[in-house]
Amino acid sequence: MNRVYVCNCFGVTESQVKQHAENGACTPRQIASACKAGTDCGSCVRRIQALLGRGACPRRELVEQGGAAVALAPQAQLPKAA
Predict the structure, then answer these.
(1) By three-state DSSP, how is residue 56 classified?
(2) Residue 15 lies in a domain
(3) Residue among 29, 36, 82 at smallest CA distance from 52
(4) Residue 6 belongs to what H/E stretch?
(5) Which of 33, 38, 54, 79 could serve as 45's disulfide partner, Cβ 3.0–4.6 Å?
(6) In what residue span(s) does the BFD-like [2Fe-2S]-binding domain sit (predicted)?
(7) Tally of domains in the chain
C-alpha cells in the first residue's frame, strides 16, 4: 500500500486528513484536534491547509456560500488555545 504521509511526527497520512475533513474537521486546528497532525514541529500545517483548500472538506462550500452558522456549529465545542 502506498501511503503519502502528511505529518511525519505522528504518522498521519493524506487519506487520514481527508477522512477527518469528511467527518467535519475543516481547519488545520480541527485536524490537529482529531489526529495531532501539525502539533509538533509544524512543518505539515501548510500541506494540511493545501489539502483542505482543495476540497477535502465538504463543508467548505457551505462556508463560502454563507451557510457557516449551520455548517460550523460544532466548532464551538473545541477547546480554546492557551
Answers:
(1) helix
(2) yes
(3) 29
(4) strand 5-7
(5) 38
(6) 5-53
(7) 1
Q: Is 13 helix (H, G, I), strand (E, B) or coil?
A: strand
Is 78 part of any domain? no
**Which uninterrupted H or E stretch holds 12?**
strand 12-13
CA gap 17, 45 in Å, rounded: 11
Separation between Cα atoms, residue 20 and residue 78, nearest integer Å: 15
Q: Are 7 and 42 in contact (CB under 8 A)?
A: no
Q: How big is the chain, counted in residues?
A: 82
Domain range for 66 is 5-73
Instruction: Write out pLDDT tens, residues 33-67.
Output: 999 999 999 999 999 999 998 766 665 555 555 54
Taking the whole predicted model, whether its pTM rises above 0.70 is answered as: no
Q: Domain for residue 39, yes or no?
A: yes
Q: Please name every residue paired with 12 in a beta bridge, in sequence order, or none if there are none.
A: 7
Identify whether the C-beta of residue 12 lies closer than 8 Å to the C-beta of residue 37: yes
